[in-house]
Amino acid sequence: MPILEKLVQPGQARRWTDSIPLEYHYTAGVAGEEFRRELRDNGRFLVSKCSKCKSTYIPARMYCPSCFIEMKDQFPMDKPGYIYSFTSVNQDRSGTETDSPMTVGLVKFEGVKGGIVHFLDVDPDQVSIGMKVTPSLKNSSERTGAITDIRAFKPVSTGPSRVSVESEKVERQVVGAGENPARLLLRSIEESGYPIEEDEMTISSLRSKISRGELLTREEDKLLHRLGDKAREWRKAVKTSSETEPGDTLSG
Length: 252
Ligand SMILES: [Zn+2]
Hints:
Layout: H1 29-42, E1 45-49, E2 56-58, E3 73-77, E4 81-91, E5 97-108, E6 113-114, E7 116-119, E8 132-137, E9 150-155, H2 165-174, H3 181-191, H4 200-211, H5 218-243
Parallel strand pairs: 2-6
Antiparallel strand pairs: 1-2, 1-3, 4-5, 4-8, 5-7, 8-9
Helix pairs in contact: 3-5
Bound molecules: zinc ion.
């Protein structure tokens, strides 16, 4: 039936089932392509920095979402990431049960906005929020510029690094093995020393829900992570001020 012809009787409508073969290509965009090229050629992550608000983003992107201006500064980043959140996955993309659960996490980098979601090559009993991780990459000859050039993120093995000794110590005390991420995050907020007064109501409702083992809603989860960020910032600020000579500190 030609496309402009109209049905005059509803009874003329017919349906049939078949499939249409479609192929499509996903384009990563200008900055996305540069990110992938840097990953493939040099095994590094490219980040973009906004000249106005000084925010740095991973993966590299063309525009600052806060200032709406083009970000021309891009540079590779070498610092390790940390696990911001993680979960266990029992099915692959087609919904087929996998032989063993896979651990997937959101890896963020100190002082950088955004992050990378990827597999974690960490023993499920050992994985914890805040754990320092580094990418495990395919050999350069095997890399194609795909995100799968990263095999997984694995724990930083070379002992506690200079910058992380302090926070690592705190995190180690805070986290236990095999506990649920929300509970760990809540505890790290409570133990950070961050003054929770203004968020006390929110925290206590989250706390009772988590202690009952209930799942948080998307909104609550977001809230918890926002508080986690505040606590993290707080801990960093406390650490920085304790390292600063009194003379360096601005009064008022
Ligand atoms: Zn900006």
